[in-house]
Amino acid sequence: MRFSINIPNFGDFADARTVAMAAQAAEEAGWDALFIWDHVVLDKKERRGQPFGDPWMLLTAAALATSRLKLGTLVTPVARRRPEQLARQVATLDALSGGRVIFGAGLGGPIEDEFGSFGEPTDPVLLAERLDEGLDLLQRYWSGNPVEHDGKHYRVRDVTLLPAATQRPRPPVWIAGFWPHRRPIRRAARWDGVVPLFSNGHGNPPPLDELRDLLTYLKEHRKDPRPNHFEVVVGGLTPGDPAKARDLIAPYAEAGATWWDERQLFTTDALHRLAPVMRRINQGPPTL
To answer: What is the dihedral of CA 231, 212, 207, 200, to 10 degrees?
Structure first.
């Protein structure tokens, strides 16, 4: 199992210099990755007045401050972005970081705030179609090969985006979705990893029985059953005591999780404050 730090792109972490400092500390403390949220306003009522940073600028700062740490978004709503622009952002970061990017994607939300606020469609079926079509375009753009596309939502005529992504054939793509919704898990089965979300909320370790049910369903839909070709990402807030943290995480590793994503509770200000996040970073990742 590998271990990542998860931070939002708002509050204290809207500042690229702060994110660079956190990333450098995470690398020095032995963490394997840093993941950043990709929101514009999130919940307008709750977050009004808070600054938000662009995740790709924040990750660029993190890449320049580190040499080993994996970097990515958890998660980017592909339907809210132009695939060609997103492809360039990811490929540029992949080159800058020496091939350390992991691309997390999902439907995004809350839909009314994140899409409706800007006059974008809010039909989740349409957004899911854009997500699937956009993901297909992204991997074709990252290849560096010519792209012709005539889809339901996107048209492309004689385009070759260079340079290609540094990682071959492309950066890993992890798909997020709420369990027990089946469609996002079937989508994840076609890519490189799954980041399941559960009803008990961000920062709370997922119910173990629900994770096992998800993994059983996922296995039924994976065309490539080799476990080393697919990542299962779960997370939450671990205790500061190493033995208690190990006891918490071990059952998830035994169930089939390959990453533990360290997350602050969504319901507290520690989520977007530097001090509590840095305390956890400097303690280092759990050990199994």
So the answer is: 60
Residue 198 identity (one-letter amino acid): F
pLDDT, mean of residues 164-180:
97
**Domains of the chain: which residue ranges?**
2-133+162-283
What are the tokens at 53?
């940073």
223 burial class (0-12, 13-18, 19+ CB within 10 angstroms)?
A: exposed
- pTM of the model as a whole: 0.96
**In this structure, what are the phi and psi dihedrals at residue 74, rounded to the nearest 5 degrees?**
-135, 90
Say what the pLDDT of residue 223 is.
80
- The Cα–Cα gap between 193 and 175 comes to 6
Contacts with 203 (C-beta within 8 Å, 6 or more apart), sequence order: 236, 237, 263, 264, 265, 266, 267, 268, 271
pLDDT band (50, 70, 90) for residue 242: confident
Of 35, 38, 14, 17, give the one whose Cα is nearest residue 26.
35
Cα separation values, 129 from 107, 172, 268, Å: 10, 21, 34
Closest CA to 270 of 281, 259, 286: 281
- Residue 99 pLDDT greater than 80, yes or no: yes
Mean pLDDT across the chain? 96
**Minimum mean pLDDT range among 192-196, 203-207, 239-243, 249-253:** 239-243
CATH of domain 2-133+162-283: 3.20.20.30
Instruction: Decide the pairing of beta strands 155-159 and 147-150.
Output: antiparallel
